[in-house]
Write a structure and sequence with these properties.
The protein is of the alpha/beta class. About 40% of the residues lie in helices and about 15% in strands. It has eleven helices and twelve strands. Strand 2, helix 2 and strand 3 form a beta-alpha-beta unit. The mean pLDDT is about 95.
Length: about 300
């Protein structure tokens, strides 16, 4: 198991606790401290020793990014299979056993479900992962690779600030390896509180999608109708087209209906300030769409 971490002292200790409870599997845990400044490394070493975890902790002298940190972990690992999770994640007790069971002959990559903790009520300004299918992101909060596939593809590309896990997965697939999804390898992703500014800026990360598709055109198979990152973005594109045409053809406003319906289904506006919440979510969708449009022009590859 390979776990990169950066300034998440309390969370990574919870991850180690969860990894120590894995059932029916022999494993080593390699935690790569990516230049943390919060005292993470000595705490990691102490907790791993107390839990009796086999493996090692590695401290990098500076923050080099998650791709580099994971590559360091890969180089230090001795196993033929790499199981990846993150330091804000809590794998269930059967996570490793289930992921390994799915790596049968000819299968090189396994992705499992990632969910917020059961019963959690995330604050409005927060971040967490929720994945329930083989979505093509190959997010390393919950991913398994055979050594042959990962090393053969050259590992993670440290030039990729975001989507380094997606980039690796698509390179591995381009070499003919097969990926599968197993619903039994469950990971719970901690809810990370964000400042309002962090939350508002988060859709900017979508800018990496057109660049990834430009490098890996086969990745379009994971997009909605091959051009949108989600069905919601396709509906938003229709809405934008409708608003542009409405001054000369008023019935075109009906094109906004699919987005309005999907918007009301995707977001709940209970509690205080429902109108403000709706405006903020609308900003989130529109800013993500505009980010993709701008990046599509830059990379001459249409992804919205």
């Amino acid at each position: 198991m390979i776990v990169p971490t950066y300034n998440r002292r309390d969370l990574v200790l919870q991850t180690l606790d969860a990894l120590s409870r894995q059932e029916d599997a022999r494993f080593e845990v390699i935690v790569v401290d990516d230049g943390s400044k919060d005292g993470s490394f000595p705490a990691i070493v102490e907790r791993a020793r107390a839990l009796g975890l086999a493996g090692r902790g590695i401290r990098l002298d500076r923050n080099r990014g998650p791709a580099d940190a994971r590559n360091v972990g890969v180089l230090a690992a001795r196993a033929d299979v790499f199981a990846f999770t993150d330091s804000d994640c809590l794998p269930t007790e059967t996570w490793l056993k289930s992921g390994l069971a799915a790596l049968v002959s000819g299968i090189a990559m396994v992705q499992g479900p990632t969910r917020p903790p059961a019963g959690s009520a995330p604050p409005f300004f927060s971040h967490f992962m929720h994945i329930e299918r083989l979505d093509g992101t190959f997010s390393t909060c919950n991913a398994f690779y055979s050594r042959d596939a990962l090393v053969g593809a050259g590992g993670f590309d440290p030039r990729r600030i975001y989507c380094e896990d997606l980039d690796l997965g698509w390179r591995v697939q381009a070499r003919g390896w097969v990926a599968v999804y197993t619903r039994d390898a469950v990971v719970y992703h901690q809810v990370i509180k964000q400042s309002p500014l962090e939350w508002l800026r988060w859709p900017g990360r979508l800018s990496s999608w057109p660049a990834c598709i430009a490098r890996h055109p086969q990745g379009r198979s994971y997009l909605f109708a091959r051009y949108w990152v989600s069905s919601a973005h396709a509906a938003l594109t229709l809405a934008v087209a409708g608003l542009i045409m409405t001054p000369v053809f008023p019935p075109a406003l009906l094109l906004a209906a699919p987005y309005a319906i999907s918007f009301s289904k995707r977001y709940e506006f209970k509690g205080k300030w429902p109108f403000a919440k709706a405006l903020l979510h609308l900003w989130w969708d529109v800013w993500g769409w505009l980010t993709l449009a701008r990046s599509s022009i830059k990379h001459r590859t249409l992804v919205l």
